[in-house]
Design goal:
CATH superfamily of the largest domain: Type I PLP-dependent aspartate aminotransferase-like (Major domain)
CATH class of the largest domain: Alpha Beta
Structural class: alpha/beta
Radius of gyration: 21 Å
Strand content: 15-25%
Bound molecules: pyridoxal-5'-phosphate
Strand order of the largest sheet: 4-14-13-12-9-7-8
């Protein structure tokens, strides 16, 4: 259908047919298997980015692939005038994994930004009383919550926001991890506080358990919602089902996407307990594709495989190994993150050059900042595969520095 072609030929066709919002793609990828991918010129790469924390089980996982194919061959789409068993089973499964209290509910979307958009609408419904309407939404400096208008209003980066102002109002950004600033910001006009347990796009910056616990106390006292954006950190990425699990708190809502469908697009908003789920009633939100049988079957298959193939234990072991190995590399000044969401700080602004040198050496990594590398590989990365990267990394870093 698409024909053959070299990477250069495809990229020339790309630039004349696709909108330039992503810049020039680094490679044209044609095939994947497990943690490996191949480009149009036949070169092999170890994928240490996993489609940006999406390919939880790697590429072309046989079980997920067969479940998707058989669901599509049985019932592909029904609209939300109807439901289907996979949608209901996935909602139940997610609530069980999140240890959600009675009355908790799920809304299915198709992406992270849509899950956040639904959460933003939920926040707007937390209106307080008529004489004290709640208009304020608190987010953090460095936050990334997506690119649709509501999610963009929560996203901090000026370069992403500025061309699209005015954005939906009421959002204030406060300094990252600063408890005093949070205390000062959360009051009886606050509808919600949005937090990523670990900021991924900002270079893998974790919030402490103490901060999350304080955020829970402050929002509860003020009658505000605590909404955790686990789009990047959820579904086992950090070695637990949710990154916020260790803090031992129950937020009012959680957003998920990325790894949830094992590569198939799906997002979800979980509301915890009776109260938040009552905020959005019939007709107040919707989506044509959300919760369709194929996406929900893909997610059920992904969760099943993570559970039954001891994937969370692997995430912890291999993540630990990678972090220890990277910390020992000369030129690495810091290693952050949990499980297989890892940020690596370098002693020079060479991160984009490291991405290029990594590709030349057969490794896919990402540079969320000028001196920061992010790894978010498939959760099934083996210790042996991690070793190949650790062995190659000092030379990749040196090549990047030489190229500056
Ligand atoms: N929230 C977080 C924490 C994210 O990391 C992202 C994407 O990187 C999003 C939301 C937006 O997700 P999507 O790109 O699927 O719209």
């Amino acid at each position: 259908m698409t024909g053959m072609g070299s990477g250069a030929e495809w990229l020339s066709r790309y630039s004349s047919s696709l909108m330039g919002v992503f810049g020039t793609p680094q490679r044209v990828l044609v095939r994947g298997a497990g943690c490996l991918v191949w480009d149009a010129d036949g070169k092999e790469y170890l994928d240490l980015l996993g489609g940006i924390a999406v390919n939880a089980l790697g590429h072309a996982h046989p079980f997920v692939t067969s479940v998707i194919a058989s669901q599509l061959a049985t019932l592909g789409h029904v609209s939300n005038f109807f439901t289907s068993p996979t949608q209901i089973a996935l909602a139940e499964k997610l609530l069980a994994l999140a240890k959600a209290p009675a009355g908790s509910k799920v809304f299915f979307a198709n992406s992270g930004t849509e899950a956040v958009e639904a959460a933003f609408k939920l926040a707007r419904r937390n209106t307080g009383t008529a004489d004290a309407p709640r208009t304020k939404v608190v987010a953090l400096d460095g936050a990334f919550h997506g690119r649709t208008m509501g999610a963009l209003a929560l996203t901090a980066k000026e370069a992403y926001r500025a061309p699209f102002e005015p954005l939906p109002g009421g959002v204030v950004h406060i300094p990252f991890g600063d408890l005093e600033a949070l205390r000062a910001a959360v009051d009886h006009s606050t509808a919600a506080v949005f937090l990523e347990p670990i900021q991924g796009e900002a270079g893998v910056r974790p919030l402490s358990a103490e901060y999350l616990q304080a955020a829970r106390r402050l929002t509860t006292d003020a009658g505000a919602l605590l909404i955790l954006d686990e789009v990047q950190t959820g579904v086992g990425r950090t070695g637990t089902w949710l990154a916020s699990e260790d803090a031992g708190i129950v937020p009012d809502a959680i957003t998920l996407a990325k790894g949830l469908g094992g590569g198939f697009p799906i997002g979800a908003l979980l509301t915890m307990g009776e109260k938040p789920s009552a905020l959005l009633s019939a007709g107040q939100h919707g989506t044509t594709f959300g919760g369709n049988p194929v996406a929900t079957a893909a997610a059920l298959a992904t969760l099943h495989a993570i559970e039954n193939q001891h994937v969370l234990a692997n995430v912890n072991t291999v993540g630990e190994h990678l972090r220890a190995g990277l910390a020992a590399v000369p030129g690495v000044t810091g290693v952050r993150g949990r499980g297989l969401l890892i940020g690596v700080d370098l002693d020079a602004d060479v991160a984009p050059a490291v991405v290029q040198a990594g590709l030349d050496a057969g490794f896919i990594v990402n540079a969320p900042g000028p001196h920061t590398i992010r790894l978010a590989p498939p959760l099934v990365l083996t210790t042996a595969q991690a070793e190949t990267f650790l062995a190659a990394f000092p030379a990749i870093l040196q090549t990047a520095k030489d190229a500056q």
